[in-house]
Specification:
The chain has 367 residues and is of the alpha/beta class. 43% of the residues lie in helices and 17% in strands. The chain has helices spanning 2-27, 67-89, 95-102, 117-131, 198-206, 209-212, 226-239, 251-262, 271-274, 288-291, 304-315, 322-334, 350-361; strands spanning 33-37, 44-47, 52-55, 59-63, 93-94, 140-141, 147-149, 153-156, 159-162, 171-172, 182-185, 191-195, 215-219, 243-246, 280-283, 300-301, 336-337. The strands form 6 sheets. It has a 6-stranded mixed sheet with strand order 10-7-13-12-14-15, sandwiched between helices. The protein has a 3-stranded antiparallel sheet with strand order 9-8-11, with no helix packed on it. The radius of gyration is 23 Å and the shape is globular. The model has no long low-confidence stretch (mean pLDDT 93).
């Protein structure tokens, strides 16, 4: 409780300072200015030492008297003011709720403060970066997306949850998984397996793969949300567990892996919390077609978008290791990709009884 009060006070003070600075600029007849880190590719770099995507030092200025900035300036202060209010009320709302709470028509005009949620979401991220905070600490949450199963006890706001007894559904990973809210204990696992697809996660859960192989299985149901990535990051750091990632053999699956491993360009200011540089890629790869005798008729022809994206990945610093260059070029040369479900052509339980156990025991990973 004391920790919660302290965090709330800290976040409120950050918001109050932002408002006070703007007010003082008005009083001094200055053009009100909000300084924001630039969150684009031009201000992103790859930290070779720590193997994370980092935000650079460049900043932009969102000013009230610049016509191009005025709307965004107004939106930024609206979001900041609403966050202060919900912190004071000690309630948490969804980022969707925030959008609707702030959307209204400006008096005397026909213009709305926000037209779509696509306008309010980036403003939240701007505030996170500018105030060096998390949206969860501003009492905002996103829809939960990830799921977890395995031998681990989760302590959530005073409740104990046994993730080995969650049936077919697993533990739904919430948006806020920071240590002041979520704690872990009684973990019995040799590694963490992160699975791109929910359907494949369900196959592994039904087969009790986590029990037979002594691991924690997690899915982000596609591109993992922040809560899922933070759980992976915490379990790795707090229990010193290896992290293995299982995705489709296509450029989109490979990029999902890279986001889990070293963070994303858009959220580069959170890479320390969301990236797990020690993660390894266990599959699927196009080279597995020959390794495991997968029928060619379950492969999918690369389309123009796939080819374009693969060529982009080839240029990324984090895909420069020779093993990745070999795989990406092999995909282009063969002209096909595969979904994880293609392994079912070898038998429904092939992935749990043969593919994963063999790859993991042989440490057949990509870096």
């Amino acid at each position: 409780m004391e920790t919660e009060k302290r965090l709330n006070a800290e976040q409120k003070e950050k918001l109050v300072k932002l408002g006070r600075d703007i007010l003082n600029q008005f009083r001094n007849l200055q053009n009100p200015d909000i300084k924001l880190p630039i969150r684009t590719l031009s201000n992103i770099y790859f930290d070779e030492k720590n193997k994370l995507i980092r935000l650079g030092s460049k900043v932009s200025h969102r000013t009230y008297l610049n016509v191009a900035h005025t709307r965004k300036f107004m939106q930024t202060l609206l979001v900041a003011a609403e966050c202060k209010k919900i912190i004071e009320q000690n309630v948490t709302i969804s980022i969707r709720d925030l959008y609707y709470a702030l959307k209204h028509t400006i008096p005397g005009t026909k213009e709305n403060t926000f037209e779509e949620q696509e306008e309010s979401d980036p403003v939240i991220e701007d505030l996170e970066a500018a105030l060096n905070t998390l949206r969860e600490q501003l009492h905002l949450k996103a829809d939960r997306k990830g799921y977890l199963a395995g031998n681990i006890i989760i302590h959530d706001s005073g409740d104990e949850i046994d993730a080995s007894k969650m049936g077919s559904s697993g533990w739904a990973i919430p948006s806020n998984v920071e240590p002041d809210v979520i704690k872990f204990s009684n973990l019995e696992a040799d590694y963490i397996l992160v699975i791109e697809k929910d359907a494949v996660w369900q196959r592994l859960n039904e087969d009790k793969f986590w029990k037979k192989e002594k691991c924690i299985i997690i899915t982000g149901k596609g591109q993992p949300d922040r809560g899922t990535r933070r759980v992976v990051n915490r379990l790795h750091k707090e229990f010193n567990l290896p992290v293995y990632v299982l995705t489709d053999a296509d450029p989109w699956g490979y990029y999902i892996y890279s986001v889990i491993k070293q963070g994303s360009i858009n959220l580069s200011f959170l890479s320390d919390r969301l990236g797990t540089p020690e993660a390894k890629f266990v599959g699927l790869t196009t080279q597995d077609v020959e390794k495991f005798g997968i029928a060619r008729n379950v492969t999918i022809k690369l389309n123009q978008g796939d080819v374009k994206r693969t060529n982009e990945l080839l240029k990324y610093v984090w895909f420069k290791p020779k093993e990745w260059q070999t795989e990406l070029k092999h995909m282009l040369s063969k002209g096909y990709k595969l979904e994880l479900e293609a392994l079912s052509s070898k038998g429904i339980k092939f992935i749990t009884e043969k593919y994963l156990p063999e790859k993991i025991s042989k440490k057949d990973f990509l870096p």
